[in-house]
């Protein structure tokens, strides 16, 4: 049987964005991550791997790169006759409405929700990078007879990046949610994934807007923790919260742990992305590579350590790249040294240069910069 | 319905059994054999078609088509899922008077005359899915039009020592073909036919029908049709191709062609953004090179996890090599799992094989390439040499 129970909604409205130059020309969702992916690939793949065949993306700002990346949704197998992918840009009468909260935009697109057949809706952000099976979240939701299930992550280490905190009682019911700057001490972070019946969402949209409130989490969920059964489902895999430069860098470096690499990219499902058709990576006789992730299309003639190279990067002879992230088509010319840096796409480092950041403050070069 | 007439369509012969590839083609047609770290042989001809502006390709399959069909699908990875034309897989089929297998290359085209007629093409390009090369068929078509030939055959100068494996051509100074011999024992020319033909369709059709009516014919382009055209004094022209071209029909040539890619500036450039080689995407993460790994002079694809030493080798997607393992001058096909302290020298390992810790395959200075069959489990105590 293949009847769809859940529709996916990727909510990019007012998504936290402190990614500096990386989001000058794009939204957080399309920031390159993990050597060949864009951040949104993880959420899209998770949905598809969980059997969700209808996904709506509420885009908001700077979404040209998103349209380019997603295309028809074919790369995620979301190009169907019956359902598939919907990109929902803001419907506004005047520009000021653009800044209103997500509930307003959901309301403006209510026809989309009403026309969809699935009974449940899963609302997510893009910047929570993980590999998760949402079918288990639905099972949990049904078992707990929850009104809303919130996916949470438990960790005793401080979370890199900005995430809301969650406090639960012994039964798993959420009793408090605080914004990332709140003082509450809790090991549980909110992964900003909310599962509920579509009818409930529509109710929340209408009742909140009637009261002049238009933020899903802050208004419709924070304030209703007493009236509604809101439960926390704990996801126990790897989580990268990617919404600040330090979390971008720190979480990228975590991928260099082979266990994290295996878990994030394979378990429970594969991660899909737009196909580029580059050749396999080439290593010259002089290449020295250790503890690194290298994408196809790279040509390595120099030294690469503790680094992540995106597709088509060329490290010339005598060049050294350490503790760095070099995005698509970056070129490091001979005898240059790059340390603790993040290079956006198409950055060129001329010969005999030295570019160094520190791990607590990596050097960040914007797209097409030449040094 | 209004349908654009096609100036030229391609008929791709993909039924080759590839006998000389032994265990690698036991369950697989030759065009589906892996090459170059992420491709299958047929990707090259399909990509050539697309880059040459040909959007209608009939793929003739016969031998072990399951995996090939699954791979080709509806042609999406090559951009051949089109409303008008695109890729069509053409297996032999049953007819009222009973069906027959494709008896030979010419018969395969003969049986698909109705397919070709649908597009009313001026020219038909006949190619095979057995070779590795990047070629612009549009330039060849230009040559064909300029010379006004009935047929143009692409030719490539091969090493004299290999010449007897090919159909060989003699040409005059205007590149007109004056003689043609199919796989002679003692070659008198080294200009090999690449198995790439452009025919004027109406003329080809006449010859196909006549050839089919001749019970003595083996219904083969090289052996029957081309000689028949020569006998009738038609103008046969040769289009000389100067790029990289390799028939990877034997274990040695398959291994060599893979090794060719490891040169500093390989004559076959896989990275040309203007001429990408399209293939089915395996959806693997970027490769992971571990702390103590040593990788040099190699071509490594997505999803590989490398802990050991890899030198002068081609690793397809999803290959894992354990700590202390050595892979030298070898071609490791997709999803092969290599344990720790394994030694592999001058070998081709079939996809999905599992090599346990401590096994030894091949020898460093061996002249013979060791081949491990698809999915084979090699145990720790095994020391394998040669072709099974």
UniProtKB/TrEMBL annotation, chain A:
Lineage top rank: taxon: Bacteria
Swiss-Prot/TrEMBL keywords: Glycogen biosynthesis, Nucleotidyltransferase, Transferase
Glucose-1-phosphate adenylyltransferase/Bifunctional protein GlmU-like C-terminal hexapeptide domain segment(s): 287-355
One term of GO molecular function: glucose-1-phosphate adenylyltransferase activity
Signal peptide as annotated in the record: none
Domain Nucleotidyl transferase: 21-229
GO BP term, pick one: glycogen biosynthetic process
Gene3D superfamilies referenced in this protein's UniProt entry, alphabetically: Hexapeptide repeat proteins, Spore Coat Polysaccharide Biosynthesis Protein SpsA, Chain A
Record-stated family: Belongs to the bacterial/plant glucose-1-phosphate adenylyltransferase family.
NCBIfam families: glgD
Full protein name: Glucose-1-phosphate adenylyltransferase subunit GlgD
Organism: Paenibacillus montaniterrae
Gene name, Swiss-Prot/TrEMBL: glgD
């Amino acid at each position: 049987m293949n009847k769809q129970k859940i529709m996916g909604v990727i909510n990019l409205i007012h998504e936290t964005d402190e990614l500096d130059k990386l989001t000058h020309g794009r939204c957080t969702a399309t920031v390159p991550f993990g050597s060949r992916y864009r951040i949104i690939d993880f959420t899209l793949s998770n949905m598809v791997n969980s059997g969700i065949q209808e996904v709506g993306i509420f885009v908001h700002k700077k979404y040209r790169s998103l349209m380019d990346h997603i295309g028809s949704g074919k790369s995620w197998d979301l190009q169907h006759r019956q359902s598939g992918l919907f990109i929902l840009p803001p419907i506004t009468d005047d520009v000021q409405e653009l800044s209103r909260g997500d509930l307003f935009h959901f309301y403006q697109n209510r026809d989309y929700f009403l026309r969809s057949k699935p009974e449940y809706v899963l609302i997510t952000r893009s910047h929570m990078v993980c590999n998760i099976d949402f079918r288990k979240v639905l099972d949990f939701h049904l078992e707990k007879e929850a009104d809303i299930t919130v996916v949470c992550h438990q960790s005793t280490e401080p979370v890199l990046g900005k995430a809301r905190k969650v406090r639960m009682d012994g039964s798993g019911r959420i009793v408090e949610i605080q914004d990332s700057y709140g003082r509450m001490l809790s090991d549980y972070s909110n992964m900003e994934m909310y599962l509920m019946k579509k009818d409930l969402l529509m109710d929340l949209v209408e009742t909140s807007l009637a009261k002049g409130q238009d933020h899903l989490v802050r208004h419709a969920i924070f304030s209703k923790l007493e009236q509604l059964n809101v439960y926390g489902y704990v996801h126990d895999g790897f989580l990268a919260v990617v919404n600040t430069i330090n979390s971008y860098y720190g979480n990228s470096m975590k991928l260099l742990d082979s266990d994290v690499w295996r878990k994030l990219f394979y378990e429970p499902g594969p991660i899909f992305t737009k196909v580029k058709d580059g050749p396999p990576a080439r290593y010259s006789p002089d290449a020295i590579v250790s503890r690194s992730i290298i994408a196809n299309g790279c040509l390595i003639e120099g030294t690469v350590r503790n680094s992540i190279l995106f597709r088509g990067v060329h490290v010339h002879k005598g060049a050294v790249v350490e503790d760095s992230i070099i995005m698509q088509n970056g070129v490091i010319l001979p005898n240059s040294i790059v340390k603790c840096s993040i290079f956006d796409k198409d950055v060129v480092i001329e010969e005999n240069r030295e570019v160094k950041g520190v791990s607590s403050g990596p050097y960040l070069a914007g797209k097409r910069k030449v040094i | 319905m209004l349908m654009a007439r096609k100036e030229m369509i391609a008929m791709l012969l993909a039924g080759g059994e590839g006998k000389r590839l032994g265990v690698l083609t036991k369950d697989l047609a030759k065009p589906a054999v892996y090459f170059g770290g992420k491709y299958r042989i047929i990707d090259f001809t399909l990509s050539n078609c697309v880059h040459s502006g040909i959007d209608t390709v009939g793929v003739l399959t016969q031998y072990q088509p399951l995996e090939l069909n699954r791979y080709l699908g509806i042609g999406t990875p090559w951009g051949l899922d089109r409303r008008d034309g695109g890729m069509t897989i053409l297996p032999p089929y049953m007819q009222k008077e009973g069906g027959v297998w494709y008896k030979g290359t010419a018969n395969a085209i003969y049986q698909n005359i109705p397919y070709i007629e649908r597009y009313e093409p001026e020219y038909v390009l006949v190619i095979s899915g057995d070779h590795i090369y990047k070629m612009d068929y549009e330039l060849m078509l230009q040559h064909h039009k300029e010379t006004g030939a009935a047929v143009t055959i692409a030719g490539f100068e091969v090493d004299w020592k290999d010449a007897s494996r090919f159909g060989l051509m003699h040409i005059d100074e205007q590149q007109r073909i004056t003689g043609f011999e199919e796989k002679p024992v003692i070659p008198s020319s080294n200009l090999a036919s690449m198995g790439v033909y452009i025919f004027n369709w109406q003329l080809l059709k006449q010859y196909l029908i006549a050839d089919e009516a001749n019970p003595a014919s083996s219904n083969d382009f090289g052996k029957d049709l081309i000689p028949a055209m020569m006998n009738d004094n038609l103008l046969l022209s040769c289009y000389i191709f100067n790029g990289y071209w390799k028939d990877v029909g034997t274990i040695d040539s398959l291994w060599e062609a893979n090794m060719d890619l490891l040169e500093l500036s390989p004559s076959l450039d896989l990275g040309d953004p203007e001429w990408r080689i399209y293939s089915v995407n395996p959806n693997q993460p970027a490769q992971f090179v571990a702390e103590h790994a040593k990788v040099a002079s190699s071509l490594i694809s997505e999803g590989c996890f490398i802990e050991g030493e890899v030198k002068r080798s081609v690793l397809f997607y999803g290959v894992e090599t354990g700590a202390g393992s050595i892979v030298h001058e070898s071609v490791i096909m997709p999803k092969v799992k290599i344990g720790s302290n394994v030694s592999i020298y001058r070998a081709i390992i079939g996809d999905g094989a599992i090599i346990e810790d401590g096994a030894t395959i091949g020898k460093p200075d061996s002249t013979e390439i060791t081949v491990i069959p698809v999915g084979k489990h090699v145990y720790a105590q095994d020391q394998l040499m040669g072709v099974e």
